[in-house]
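Consider a concrete sample entry:
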Amino acid sequence: MKLNQLPKVEYQSLNPRQKETYNFQKVSAILADYGFATIKLNDDWANADFIAQHIDEDKYLKVQLKGRLTFDKKYLGKDLYICFPYENHWYVYNHDNLLEEFLGKGKLSGTSSWDEKGLYHFPKLSKDILIEIDGFKL
């Protein structure tokens, strides 16, 4: 069998579990360029979908894979990184650090999503938000 003769999968045709696996594989390949090896977790251990271990340092990242820029109060204090794709780029950020920046600039406060539900995500990113998170783009 020649793999290059198989049709490529259409992301939109995948079910949610398949999309998570697909995204894990894609971001793992990119993280490898930065010296990380990844380990997929079966059950969101400590709210992480996977662990990324750096080759040169005693550095481990607990990573939650998302479909968009997301903040969630259940992730507070867990030293968790969020990873998401946007317009052919991947972003990885420390949840609590970026949340603190956003709250300090009044970006989430006053919304029912954040204040009442404790969850805020950005389906579309404005130019201002893209500038703010540019340093987290891989």
The chain has four helices and seven strands.
